[in-house]
Amino acid sequence: MLEVERLNKDFVVRHNFLARFGHPDHVIHAVNDVSFKIKKGEIFGIAGKSGSGKTTLGKIILRLLEPTSGSVLYKGQNVFEFNPDELKDYRRQVQVVFQDADSTPDPRQKLITALEEPLLVHRIANKSERRAIIEQALEQVNLPVSLVDRYPSALSGGQRRRAALARALVLKPEVIIADEPITGLDPVVSAQILSLLLKLNREFNLTLIIITHDLGAINYLSDRVAVMYGGKIVELVDGNLFESSSLHPYTRFLQGVSVGGFQDNGNTDIHQRSGVAGEGCIYAGVCPRAKPECFDVSPQLQELNPGHLVACQFTLEQ
Ligand SMILES: Nc1ncnc2c1ncn2[C@@H]1O[C@H](COP(=O)(O)OP(=O)(O)OP(=O)(O)O)[C@@H](O)[C@H]1O
Ligand SMILES: [Mg+2]
Questions:
Q1: In angstroms, what is the span from residue 246 Cα to ligand 2's centroid?
Q2: Model pTM greater than 0.85?
Q3: 212 CA → ligand 1 middle, Å
Q4: How far is CA 105 from each of CA 156, 181, 187, 200, 314, rounded to the nearest angstrom?
């Protein structure tokens, strides 16, 4: 239902000061040749550390950002070629819950106002019908209807996340992109939010794209997992294989598995940078298994086993 084809997004970062000395602008490949397909009802996880391009990818799918190149197809149609009516429909069908969900319900708005707003924007239903839709959405996220007259400040962190989800659900979307849905929540509340996402997926055959650096959450929820590093997908694997059979050295690093005598020395900075222009494997500079060839050739994502794609010339089994 959703196809991402060879997406690229470059950000040009201007060095205002250095530019005076003829220093070139710095280009960040935030998303670098990313392709994948998501089926209806699937839970697709996108994992990777800060700066790997996860949010940028999500924003392009949502058409909140233009890609530098590549396309996003929704039900076979390029979302960047939608006319205004098609775009409006897309904005209803594909919802997002951002990582700063704590601030998404506007602190100055009562919950009822925040939840009604998307329905008003899309001109859905009359006032009493809207009230019924909102109550139903609150029920779906296990929040008491009595909360509608509260301000977000009166809600707990977990309740605010549920409210943000309810705000997405009032439009009866087909896809929800959840960007860091559990960041900043304590483990018990996180587990509740994850099982809620799973319930919504099962109940409504809701397609979910879960963006997170939390590997536990990805393992628990996802049918398939894409691991991003420096704007690239370095591994794409079935969720139930993710824990046991990951092959890319970076995935193994994320999972805390020692690779070729390499230990995480806590210097995660080098694992957080985004793509820098150049030949060779994006991970070669920090990869414990890098060979000279890795600095010359950029590996393509290749299907090594059915449904398991890895972008590494020298996978761990060899
Ligand atoms: N508007 C922008 N202008 C310039 N650079 C940007 C912009 N947005 C993102 N970037 C850069 O693109 C890269 C990818 O950022 P992105 O926010 O997509 O990463 P992320 O994986 O979501 O990280 P996090 O886990 O911290 O949310 C980073 O290097 C970031 O600094
Ligand atoms: Mg992000």
A1: 23
A2: yes
A3: 14
A4: 12, 14, 22, 20, 47
Per-residue model confidence as pLDDT tens digits over 133-178: 999 999 999 999 999 999 888 898 899 999 999 999 999 999 999 9
End-to-end alpha carbon distance in the chain: 35
Report how far residue 207's alpha carbon sits from residue 63's, in angstroms, rounded to the nearest whole number. 17
Nearest CA to ligand 1 atom 17: 55
What CA–CA distance (Å, rounded) separates 9 from 32? 7
Q: Which CATH class is domain 2-246?
A: alpha beta
Whether ligand 1 lies within 6 angstroms of the CB of 58 is answered as: no
Q: Is the separation of the CB atoms in 63 and 69 below 8 Å?
A: no
In the chain, domain spans:
2-246
Condensed to tens digits (0 to 9), the pLDDT of residues 252-294 reads: 898 886 555 444 444 444 444 444 445 789 999 899 888 898 9
Q: Which residues surround ligand 2, an ion (CB under 5 A)?
A: 55
Q: Which residues pair with 224 in a beta bridge?
A: 44, 238
- Which residue is listed with tokens 């536990």? 216
CA distance 47 to 180: 10
Tell me the C-alpha distance between 214 and 211, whole Å: 9
Which of 94, 114, 93, 92 minimizes the C-alpha distance to 103? 114
DSSP codes of every residue in 135-183 = HHHHHHTT--GGGGGS-GGGS-HHHHHHHHHHHHHTT--SEEEEESTTT
Q: 316's torsion region: left (phi>0), alpha (psi -120 to 50) or beta? A: alpha
Q: Mutate which of 46, 55, 232 to test ligand 1's pocket (most atoms within 8 Å of Cβ)? A: 55
Distance CA 188, CA 195 (A): 11
Per DSSP, 70 falls in state E
Tokens at 81, concatenated? 């070629």
Residue 180 phi/psi, 5° resolution? 55, 60
